[in-house]
Amino acid sequence: MERISRQDWIAIIVLALLAVLPPLFLSMGQSFWMDLATRLVILAIAASSLNLVLGYGGLVSFGHAAFVGLGAYAVGIPAHHWLYGGMDPIATTNGFVQIGLAVGVCALFALVTGLICLRTRGVYFIMITMAFAQMVYYGIVSIEEYGGDDGLVIDSRSEFPGISLDDPLQLYLLAWASLVVVVVLVRMIVNSRFGMVLKGGKGNEQRMATLGFNIYAYRLVAYVISGAICGYAGALLGNFTTFISPEMMDWGRSGELMFMVILGGAATLAGPILGATVFIVLEEALSSWTVYWHLPFGLFLILVVLYVRGGLTGLLSGKKED
Amino acid sequence: MGDILRAEGLNKSFGGIKATDDLHLAVATNELHAIIGPNGAGKTTLIGQLSGLQYPDTGTIYYKDRDITRLPAHRRAPLGIARSFQITSLVMEMSVIDNIALALQAKSGHSFRFFRPARSEKALRDGAMALLERVGLGAKAHMPTVALSHGEHRNMEIAIALGAQAELMLLDEPMAGLGAEESLQMVELLQSIKGQHSILLIEHDMDAVFALADRISVLVYGHIIATGTPDEIRSNEAVQHAYLGEE
């Protein structure tokens, strides 16, 4: 086992707090905070997946909400057909099938769009990832059967043997455990040979090419892994909200994910978790204080980007690693 | 002694500017072949085409008699071609040893490995450390690359080229921006690897070039006007007229 860095400690502490506090709130009858915590943990998974490509790979994807949406619809559509008939092969409430579908569809979508997007650089990459996400958005809007832009109610949550996602605590613990697994997985990937090449490509693409690395292939694999994880987060989100709509994949949602990563600290393990936490809590606190909450919220975000290098994790750890 | 690299009739234009103009060049196996020429002669464009980051408009490049004209850079490296960059081109965010270890990683198996920490691979770490010792940077292995001086970055470039175990090294102005003392050290370093690799050296520092090179080619306006030993080049009238006289 290698040494545990300061950044790892921040991730461990935040994860530990997230394990203890929300169930505590719930036991005190504060189910509102439990809801908030569930949402932020699920978004932290999505943000961690984005961090893999954005933070470590230097690929600013502005379309990750599409994966969240696809993942959620991979739960909603089978559940819809299970209840109302049609599309027999996928009509099910079996959680394993639904999550397999979410991860599979998102990996495939990432592969196909990545093949095209990754041929571009910089601002073009940002625009083309956003364009693909908007395509999915309008695609779903146009499908009458699944509610179009009114969205779709998930009448029955994913079913797993032994656990019931209808119980808020069990749903939360599943989301939390998933976040832990994802953080450990991302940590493993970025420190592996693969991760070294990915990070090297972010720092200096030409150098990596002349060393003999086909950086395009490495980025594509990272993009597929990222999309698959994000799709998983979407499946959890569908189970949490039990209502899904194309609005989930609006480009503004992609921007929020980006913001969580940058706010918390891109290319840090704890960054996406911290970012999601502060983002969600602050959004909630400010909006209960004033209807004009967007203004102070926006100012805060601008200040962090301008003055805090390495995001909140950078602030806490005193220096940026990796 | 055969030629490891041959360029035949290379042409490359940017808009109306001919950066490479009917260029012919041959680098013999294990020789140190220097290219000199005034600013804007097309030296970096030439090395770009040889390393595969740019492609010529017309003409052919042979490496060990194999046509590599259109081969992308990442597929030339495994054949044994390494290049250094005139403008230091390292991964600044990474530590010094990580940069070198990446060069070794490129040479040892594939890198689609997702689970084992790369920094725990002893062969990569020890190999990288040995290379850093060789270029005098052993003590700074674990510093962030960005914290090192320009001269030290130049030495890292050489360590990476060595780490790539290249048969042919394309060195783009390794002495650019170095002080007198650092330049001398770089000459010594190049002297120590000379003869073990084929080296194409692009360099402005005339003292260094004449001290190191087996043969020199003079590039003017994208065209090679003369090739020969340092003595032949020194006494070549066309060269003196085009280049040396102006210094």
* Basic shape of chain A: globular
Q: Would you count the extended β strands of chain A for me? A: 4
Number of helices of chain B: 9
Beta strand % of chain A: under 5%
Summarize model confidence as the mean pLDDT of chain B.
Answer: 89
Strands of the largest sheet of chain B, in order across it? 6-7-8-3-9-10
CA-atom Rg of chain A in angstroms:
19 Å
Instruction: Please tell me the CATH architecture of the largest domain in chain B by its name.
Output: 3-Layer(aba) Sandwich
* Total helical elements of chain A: 13
Helix content of chain B: 25-40%
Write the layout of secondary structure elements.
The complex is a heterodimer of chains A (322) and B (247).
Chain A (H helix, E strand, L loop, with lengths): L5 H22 L3 H26 L8 H20 L10 H23 L4 H20 L10 E2 L5 E2 L2 E2 L3 H24 L1 H11 L1 H7 L3 H27 L1 E2 L6 H14 L6 H19 L4 H14 L3 H7 L5
Chain B lengths: L2 E12 L2 E12 L3 E5 L6 H9 L6 E6 L2 E2 L5 H4 L4 E4 L11 H12 L14 H13 L15 H14 L4 E5 L7 H14 L4 E5 L3 H7 L2 E6 L2 E6 L1 H5 L2 H6 L5
Parallel strand pairs in B: 3-8, 3-9, 6-7, 7-8
Antiparallel strand pairs in B: 1-2, 1-4, 4-5, 9-10
Question: Keyphrases for this structure?
Answer:
heterodimer; A: two-stranded antiparallel ribbon; two-stranded antiparallel sheet; about 0% strand; B: about 250 residues; alpha/beta; Rossmann fold; four-stranded antiparallel beta sheet; 10 strands
Notes on the protein architecture:
- The complex is a heterodimer of chains A (322) and B (247).
- Chain A has 322 residues and is mainly α.
- Chain A has helices at 6-27, 31-56, 65-84, 95-117, 122-141, 168-191, 193-203, 205-211, 215-241, 251-264, 271-289, 294-307, 311-317; strands spanning 152-153, 159-160, 163-164, 243-244.
- Chain A has one domain (6-249).
- Chain A has a two-stranded antiparallel sheet with strand order 1-4.
- In chain A, a hairpin with a 2-residue loop joins strand 2 and strand 3.
- Chain B is α/β, with parallel strands linked by helices and 247 residues long.
- Chain B has helices at 43-51, 73-76, 96-107, 122-134, 150-163, 180-193, 206-212, 230-234, 237-242, and strands at 3-14, 17-28, 32-36, 58-63, 66-67, 81-84, 168-172, 198-202, 215-220, 223-228.
- In chain B, the strands form 2 sheets. Chain B has a 6-stranded mixed beta sheet with strand order 6-7-8-3-9-10, with helices on both faces. In chain B, strands 2-1-4-5 form a 4-stranded antiparallel beta sheet, with helices on one face.
- At the A-B interface, helix 6, helix 7, helix 8 and helix 9 of A face helix 2 and helix 3 of B.
